[in-house]
Amino acid sequence: MFGDLDLGVAVVAALLTGVVLLVVLRRRGPRRPPCAAGWIPWVGAGLRFGKAPLEFIEQARAQYGPIFTIFAMGNRMTFVTEEEGIDVFLKSKEVNFELAVQYPVYRTASVPKNIFLTLHEKLHMTMKGKMGTFNMYQFMGRLNEEFHEQLEDLGPHGTMDLISLVRCLLYPVTVNVLFKKGLIVSHKRKIEDFYWHFQIYDEGFEYGSQMPEWLLRNWSKSKRWLLALFEESIPDIKAYKPERDDCATLMQAVLDVVEGEADRHSASYALLMLWASLSNAVPITFWTLVFILSHGDIHKTIVEGISSVLGGAGREKITVSEDKLKKLLLIKWCILEAIRLRAPGVITRKVVKPVKILNYTVPSGDLLMLSPFWLHRNPKYFPDPESFRPERWKEANLEKHVFLDGYMAFGGGKFQCPGSSAEES
């Protein structure tokens, strides 16, 4: 009996010793950032984070300090908010952009991992070259023409919500210039369907990038509708020749790269480019107009500048060129200031090897995150950060495409937004 008891005690003692050793070894291991994890397995803090992500990020920073981890939907997202962490995010070889966005790209556009990793750098270089400063003239003429056409269709009178007006102008203009003129204007019902499905797809994009499609039925339906539209339209997009010049459209340049490696995924890349262009252009335009119209003195100065450079209202057609835009610097400052105040919530990298930031070690597998929205509210870089002050951009060297310190709207590093030059211009 005592022998059995001794054996039982020995087993219990061994188990306790093992637990103690594991705890001690864990404490002696690399110190990880503090973590907001929640109590639901896999979901973690996902419900609170998904409900109001920007507020949750700021609350976590106030609670945990300049570096912290949020566990949500099976992902460990480690946020950095000060110089050392930002420097690691932008420059470290231990973090990777492509691996961070590959899974969301698969979720939202059905591009397999191997195809995405094979084509991404080639496509990034192609798009960056096509939308670079020296090629802006190719877009200016087409944009002038398209905006005149859309404004004529609207007519001189009527009322509309501002966001609806912006969408009504930018949806067809963007598609006609980047893809193919007439892609979505074959008849009124198709235009309405396109607006409806893209709006659902855009508004649910963040959820669709992380969650199974069967949980997002309407979003999934709109995604399939848009993919089917592009599947049907790819041959016409390839064959399209702009009337004004012989320059290929941006989508044609993308298809030239995709064709050699993954022809059957052409529609997926068309959907990605559509989202990347409209999901940024629409809110940027909307908020720029909101801020300008909310500041009477700025609005008055801009109207006077437009009349001086482009001519007064009533002219049949106004031609906008790069040279003329350079004389309207206040408009550019307003756009950059609107982007500063309404920048996207987060940008990300995948940690491929453990990386040290401050007194913590961020483990491999974590997603390293930056929030431009909150970085742009750092008074060290932007005094009176909540105010719309376009004049602060006088200090930036925009001629050389150098923004203000702390400005992260277009990302950074090797894979900075390829359309940053176009958006700034």
Automatic annotation (TrEMBL):
GO BP, one annotated term:
cholesterol homeostasis
Q: Which cofactors does this protein require?
A: heme
Q: Which residues cross the membrane?
A: 6-25
One Pfam family here:
p450
Name the principal localization, coarsely classed: membrane
Q: In the record, which residues are listed under signal peptide? A: none
| Compartments it resides in | Microsome membrane
GO MF: heme binding; iron ion binding; oxysterol 7-alpha-hydroxylase activity
Going by the UniProt record, its keywords in alphabetical order are:
Endoplasmic reticulum, Heme, Iron, Lipid metabolism, Membrane, Metal-binding, Microsome, Steroid metabolism, Transmembrane, Transmembrane helix
Q: Where on this chain does heme bind?
A: C417
> Which family does the record assign?
Belongs to the cytochrome P450 family.
**PANTHER family per record:** 24-HYDROXYCHOLESTEROL 7-ALPHA-HYDROXYLASE (PTHR24304:SF2), CYTOCHROME P450 FAMILY 7 (PTHR24304)
What's the name of the protein?
24-hydroxycholesterol 7-alpha-hydroxylase isoform X3
Q: Which source organism?
A: Heterocephalus glaber
As recorded in Swiss-Prot or TrEMBL, the protein's gene is named LOC101717854
